[in-house]
Amino acid sequence: MSSEIIPVSRDIELRAVDEGYTAELHSLVIKNKAWLQTAFDWAQHVGSEEDTRRNVQSNQMLHQRGYAKMYLIFQAEELVGVLSFNAIEPANKAGYIGYWLDEGHQGQGILSQALQAFMRYYAGRGEIRRFVIKCRVDNRNSNSVAVRNGFTLEGCLREAEYLNGRFDDVNTYAKIIPL
Predict the structure, then answer these.
(1) What is the rounded distance in angstroms from the CA atom of residue 114 to the CA atom of residue 108?
(2) How confident is the model at residue 179 (pLDDT cuts 50, 70, 90)?
(3) What is the mean pLDDT of the chain?
């Protein structure tokens, strides 16, 4: 398993994506698939565990090359979600954040704690100073995560994301942490 770990709290940590977690991740996605499909286009395309393995391998390569970073959120040794930079702009020191948490673990502050540790880690290394969250206007939970963690709403992109047969408006939030 990968050794890249970002400590969050006594019982929460972020572990870099690794093929060894494929079965656990696939099970978590399948368990949460119904609600994930209301927020993410990719969720409808999850089929077999082999599909998940290929996705993990791709994300592992992007992670190693620094184009994106994918971490698995563990609480008390249980995989409970994902936190990532879906894209990184090294020249601009900007990272575009994506996340989701198992339905049964929402509302406990896990994601906010993980997000704060994630940002401290990358700002502390001097790699990222501009953290960006883009989320559908209708996704109240995701918008709340951004606001609760000190992100500023920079604007709304009209009909910017296609999901479930329609184009939705997307809010763009950012937080700048001086290096």
Answers:
(1) 11
(2) confident
(3) 95
| DSSP letter string, the chain | ----EEE-SSSEEEEE--GGGHHHHHHHHHHHHHHHTTT-GGGGG--SHHHHHHHHHHHHHHHHHTS-EEEEEEETTEEEEEEEEEEEEGGGTEEEEEEEE-GGGTTSSHHHHHHHHHHHHHHHTTS-SEEEEEEETT-HHHHHHHHHTT-EEEEEEEEEEEETTEEEEEEEEEEE---
Reported as a pLDDT band with limits 50, 70 and 90, residue 99 is: very high
Whole-prediction pTM: 0.94
